[in-house]
Each structure stands twice: as structure tokens, then as C-alpha cells.
Write a structure and sequence with these properties.
The chain is α/β, with parallel strands linked by helices. It has one domain: 3-Layer(aba) Sandwich (Arginase, Chain A). The chain is about 35% helix and about 15% strand. The chain binds manganese (II) ion.
């Protein structure tokens, strides 16, 4: 009986399809939770986002598209052994390489922001050059943080070092002077649309702390002065016309928000990003 299926339904993202061979977009959980400096808990985010997705409609009023009509498959979480960071990063990079080899696009549910480094490495190997659109409160351009080169606070610096030079940052309001000197901040959606070529392969990394903490307190490093949901939508409209090849939603720490609204905001972002990825593949004639 349907009534008894509920816990099973909640275990994958709403409207995920079983038909793997038709799937254009894969949804993958990467619950990496190793380097958070202030507080952790991001390992619980992928499953919390899945559960929260069941509070949403499948229809996006912003894009007038329905998730039910998009072939995407939630393939579950990577098994990342706690306490072995380099091994975990290798597991993530290999998983993304496999998805790329199947010519699928993907949305990754973090986990802490460091997961973006192995993901972008895998994409760079496959595409040669890509650009990154980065929503975040923080620059994440430190060379080291707490003595560590591999950290949630250094992830964009590591990405630049492997040759990703076009990084467009939105919502940034925290960093050192050196980080701000190195950052490339986009102030409005028009500027984003003018900065990026339509054929340029783009990876989208979305740190949940870009939102104002009054809306999304359930993150590892809340930073006042952030964006609200409706302010993100015009950026997504620009991105839906560009060549987005993959995305992640990171840094949700669901247990710091007992209202569950932070997880619902993350799930709603994931719904819109899946829709952006799919409208984007229509835009490119269905080709990767
Ligand atoms: Mn951040």
C-alpha cells in the first residue's frame, strides 16, 4: 500500500526516475565532512535535502517546467570513509569521471565545499577548459587555512591552481583583503550574462551560505548580509541560457536549523538547478 511506502519515497529526491538508460542528469550525494573549521554536520545534508524535497511541488513557477517531465536519477550517496580526506577526494573524482564518461550531467549534494575541487579536476580532464560560477558568502581563495592546503576555505584557490582562471563569484561578503584582490565579483545578473560566452562550459558551485542566515541558518559558517531566494532566480535565468555541465549544492548543515527551512531552501535550489541543467540541454540540442 502507498501509505507504507513513505520512508522509501523520502529516501530519494522527489520525482527521481528509475529508468537509468534514459537519464540525462544524475543526482549524487557526497557527504564529505572533514575540514569544517567552525562547525560541521554537512555529512547529514544529502539525506536531509532529499527528505525536504517531498515538501515541494515538482513544478517550477519560475521556469514553467515540471521535474516530472525531466529524466533525472538520484543515484544515492558515495560511501566516504570518515578520517581519510585524500582517499575521499579520490573517490569523488572517480565517481564524477564515471558520470562524465556516460555523457550525463550531474548535480552533487554536499558535503562541505572542498568536494568541488575533485569534481572540477575531473571536469577539466574531460573538457580541457571550463569556467566556474561560484555562489558563496566567502571568497574561499585562501592559500592555506588553519595550516591546511585542502580546506573548505581554500577550495577556489586550489581550483585556480589547476588552471581554472575564469571564476565568477556572486554574493561574496567575507574574505581577507588579499582574497578580495584576487576575486572576480559579479554584482548583478546582467553582468553575469555579459561576462560569459554561450558556448563556454560552465560548472556551477552553490554554497548555501550565500543566502542570508535569517533564511538559511543551517550552514557551517553563517554570514550576515546575504541574498534571499527571489534574488537568486534572475541569476538562474541567465544560467539557463548558458552551457552548464554540472553543479553542486554544498555546506548545508541541516541540524543547526530545527525549523527544517534551510533544508527546504536547499531542496528548492536543487529543483531549480535540475531544471536549469535540463533547459540548458534543450538549448544545446540535447548534447552534452
Ligand atoms: Mn561559504
Amino acid at each position: 500500500m502507498g501509505r507504507h511506502m513513505r520512508t522509501v519515497l523520502y529516501s530519494s529526491f522527489i520525482s527521481s526516475k528509475e529508468a537509468l538508460k534514459d537519464t540525462k542528469i544524475k543526482l549524487l550525494g557526497c557527504p564529505l565532512d572533514e575540514t569544517s573549521s567552525f562547525r560541521g554536520g554537512t555529512r547529514f545534508a544529502p539525506d536531509s535535502i532529499r527528505k525536504a524535497s517531498w515538501t515541494l511541488e515538482t513544478f517550477s513557477p519560475y521556469f514553467k517546467l515540471d521535474l516530472d517531465e525531466i529524466y533525472f536519477t538520484d543515484i544515492g550517496n558515495l560511501d566516504l570513509p570518515q578520517g581519510n580526506l585524500l582517499f575521499s577526494l579520490e573517490i569523488i573524482e572517480n565517481a564524477i569521471k564515471e558520470i562524465i564518461s556516460e555523457k550525463k550531467r550531474f548535480v552533487v549534494l554536499g558535503g562541505e565545499h572542498l568536494i568541488t575541487f575533485p569534481i572540477v579536476k575531473a571536469l577539466k580532464d574531460a573538457y580541457g577548459h571550463i569556467s566556474v560560477v561560484h555562489f558563496d558568502a566567502h571568497c574561499d581563495l585562501r592559500d592555506q587555512y588553519e595550516g591546511q592546503k585542502l580546506s573548505h576555505a581554500t577550495v577556489l584557490k586550489r581550483i585556480k591552481e589547476i588552471g581554472i582562471l575564469r571564476i565568477f563569484q556572486i554574493g561574496i561578503r567575507s574574505g581577507t583583503k588579499e582574497e578580495f584582490d584576487e576575486s572576480y565579483i559579479i554584482d548583478n545578473p546582467e553582468e553575469l550574462s555579459q561576462a560569459i560566452e554561450k558556448t563556454e562550459p560552465i560548472y556551477l558551485t552553490f554554497d548555501m551560505d550565500v543566502f542570508d542566515p535569517s533564511l538559511v541558518p543551517g550552514v557551517t559558517t553563517p554570514e550576515p548580509g546575504g541574498l534571499f531566494f527571489s534574488e537568486i532566480i534572475p541569476y538562474l535565468k541567465v544560467l539557463s541560457k548558458l552551457h552548464i555541465i554540472g553543479a553542486d549544492v554544498v555546506e548545508l548543515s541541516p541540524d543547526y536549523d530545527t525549523s527544517f527551512v534551510s533544508s527546504i531552501c536547499a531542496a528548492k535550489m536543487v529543483r531549480e538547478i535540475i531544471i536549469v541543467l535540463s533547459s540548458n540541454s534543450f538549448h544545446n540540442g540535447g548534447e552534452i
